[in-house]
Design goal:
The complex is a heterodimer of chains A (113) and B (114).
Chain A (H helix, E strand, L loop, with lengths): L4 E3 L2 E4 L5 E6 L6 E7 L5 E8 L2 E5 L7 E4 L6 E5 L8 E8 L7 E2 L3 E5 L1
Parallel strand pairs in A: 2-11
Antiparallel strand pairs in A: 1-3, 3-8, 4-5, 4-9, 5-6, 7-8, 9-10, 9-11
Chain B lengths: L2 E4 L4 E4 L4 E3 L1 E4 L5 E7 L5 E7 L5 E4 L2 E4 L9 E3 L8 E8 L9 E2 L3 E6 L1
Parallel strand pairs in B: 2-12
Antiparallel strand pairs in B: 1-4, 3-9, 5-6, 5-10, 7-8, 8-9, 10-11, 10-12
The chains are: A mainly beta (113), B mainly beta (114).
Chain lengths: 113, 114
């Protein structure tokens, strides 16, 4: 079965640094998503992306966050100035349509020190 | 806003035991309901879904029935195997035209002992 791949699997950064999390969605999918899970808490929706623009976002997704599909295969999440509370597992997902099955990557564990 | 509550984990069972993982939700209208499973080292995978009241989703021996009257979507399996050890997430998609986000519960870690 096709897979969503995420890199790196673990990322450690210093507070205040910029970080970019990378994802390669499934090639014929049109919708792309980021979710995150802080340790011990629920998986939370961050943003969805379609047709090269954000189609839905949560309150968590403030000006410190941005997403981009730079080259037609990668989908990235940038955090401009990381905070301690950004430490979480970040999941990328993709789907063919907005109401279709989501395929998730295995996640990037971000640790902000 | 919409929310999902799952039974607290971790849950530990012996092989061939009966499994129930409770899930209740709060939402307006008729959300779509899902169970996702995450095996060690992998991403979340859709296990089953139901999109309207009284629908039963099923897959790999797991079942869940959409109960509007009790706002529940409990996951059941009659005889679990060691390979079912994973984290299980209940989720909903809000009843809004074009809604894309999923709202998840906190996940329940299941361990099956041989």
């Amino acid at each position: 079965e096709p897979e969503v791949t995420q890199t790196p699997s673990h990322q450690v950064t210093q507070m205040g640094q910029e970080v970019i999390l990378r994802c390669v969605p499934i090639s014929n999918h049109l919708y792309f998503y980021w979710y995150r899970q802080i340790l011990g808490q629920k998986v939370e929706f961050l943003v969805s992306f379609y047709n090269n623009e954000i189609s839905e976002k949560s309150e968590i997704f403030d000006d410190q966050f941005s997403v981009e599909r730079p080259d037609g295969s990668n989908f990235t999440l940038k955090i401009r100035s990381t905070k301690l509370e950004d430490s979480a597992m970040y999941f990328c997902a993709s789907s063919q349509g907005y109401n279709e099955k989501l395929f998730f990557g295995s996640g990037t564990q971000l640790s902000v020190l | 806003g919409d929310s999902v509550t799952q039974m607290e984990g971790p849950v530990t069972l012996s092989e061939e035991a009966f499994l129930t993982i409770n899930c209740t939700y709060t939402a307006t209208g008729y959300p779509s309901l899902f169970w996702y499973v995450q095996y060690p080292g992998e991403g979340l995978q859709l296990l089953l879904k139901a999109t309207k009241a009284d629908d039963k989703g099923s897959n790999k021996g797991f079942e869940a029935t959409y109960r509007k009257e009790t706002t529940s979507f409990h996951l059941e399996k009659g005889s679990v195997q060691v390979s079912d050890s994973a984290v299980y997430f209940c989720a909903l998609r809000p009843f809004i035209q074009g809604a894309q986000k999923l709202v998840f519960g906190q996940g329940t870690r299941l361990t099956i002992n041989p």
